[in-house]
């Protein structure tokens, strides 16, 4: 990475986690593992920082709050990594919102949703995502940030 002080700092990456992901580590560890949301944010911060980016992270159980944050992200972030959790499979409104910031979106699922119930096989977010990382456990967040930075740099 260049250390030229005249070079401007890139806009941060936004990491968004949807409903119930605040309970990571407790919730169905046989599916989601034992890492907590704090561990995920720590991993994401370290990965972003290694690549020269700051990270803003937020989690909510309230769909309208998530949509407001996505609107506010327009012009403020370089790209978005999102695990939409249950809204993946239900929310046209979330997918509509994610187009508004006009930045690359990476969709992450900790579990392999395609190995699970049929209702988890469809995602409203995937058609607008630049890429999807599924079934790599929480390391998927790291891979998503690495890919996001490649996309931003292109
Ligand atoms: O809450 C979640 C988490 C999830 O997005 C995942 O990370 O594997 C998969 C979704 O089906 C589920 O509703």
Defining traits:
5-stranded parallel beta sheet; globular; single chain; binds 1,3,4-trihydroxy-5-OXO-cyclohexanecarboxylic acid; 154 residues; Rossmann fold; alpha/beta
Report on the architecture of this protein.
The chain is globular. It has a single domain, classed as 3-Layer(aba) Sandwich (Rossmann fold). The chain is built from five helices and five strands, in the order E-H-H-E-H-E-H-E-E-H. The protein is of the alpha/beta class and 154 residues long. Helix 4 links the parallel strand 3 and strand 4. Strands 2-1-3-4-5 form a five-stranded parallel sheet, with helices on one face. The chain binds 1,3,4-trihydroxy-5-OXO-cyclohexanecarboxylic acid. The site of 1,3,4-trihydroxy-5-OXO-cyclohexanecarboxylic acid has 10 residues, from loops. Its EC number is 4.2.1.10. It is an enzyme of class 4 (lyase). Pathway: Metabolic intermediate biosynthesis; chorismate biosynthesis; chorismate from D-erythrose 4-phosphate and phosphoenolpyruvate: step 3/7.
Helix/strand/pairing category:
alpha/beta
Taken together, the total number of domains comes to 1
| String of helices and strands | EHHEHEHEEH
Bound molecule kinds, no repeats? 1,3,4-trihydroxy-5-OXO-cyclohexanecarboxylic acid
Name of the CATH first level? Alpha Beta
Name of the CATH architecture: 3-Layer(aba) Sandwich
With helices defined by DSSP (H or I, 4 residues minimum), what is the helix count? 5
Indicate the proportion of strand residues: 15-25%
* Total strands: 5
CA-CA gap between termini: 15 Å
Uncertain runs are none
Shape descriptor reads globular
Rg, alpha carbons: 15 Å
CATH homologous superfamily title: Dehydroquinase, class II
> Could you please say which CATH topology applies here?
Rossmann fold
How much helix is in the residues? Answer: 25-40%
């Amino acid at each position: 990475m260049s250390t030229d002080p005249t070079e401007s700092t890139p806009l941060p990456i936004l990491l968004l986690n949807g409903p119930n992901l605040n309970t990571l580590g407790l919730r169905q560890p046989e599916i989601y593992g034992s890492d907590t949301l704090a561990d995920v944010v720590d991993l994401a911060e370290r990965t972003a920082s290694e690549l020269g980016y700051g990270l803003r992270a937020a989690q909510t159980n309230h769909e309208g709050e998530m949509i407001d944050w996505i609107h506010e992200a327009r012009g403020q972030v370089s790209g978005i990594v999102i695990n939409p959790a249950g809204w993946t499979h239900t929310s046209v409104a979330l997918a509509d919102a994610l187009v508004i910031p006009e930045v690359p979106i990476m969709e992450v699922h900790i579990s392999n949703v395609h190995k699970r119930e049929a209702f988890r096989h469809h995602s409203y977010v995937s058609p607008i995502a630049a890429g999807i990382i599924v079934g790599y456990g929480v390391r998927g967040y790291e891979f998503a940030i690495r890919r996001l930075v490649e996309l931003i740099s292109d």
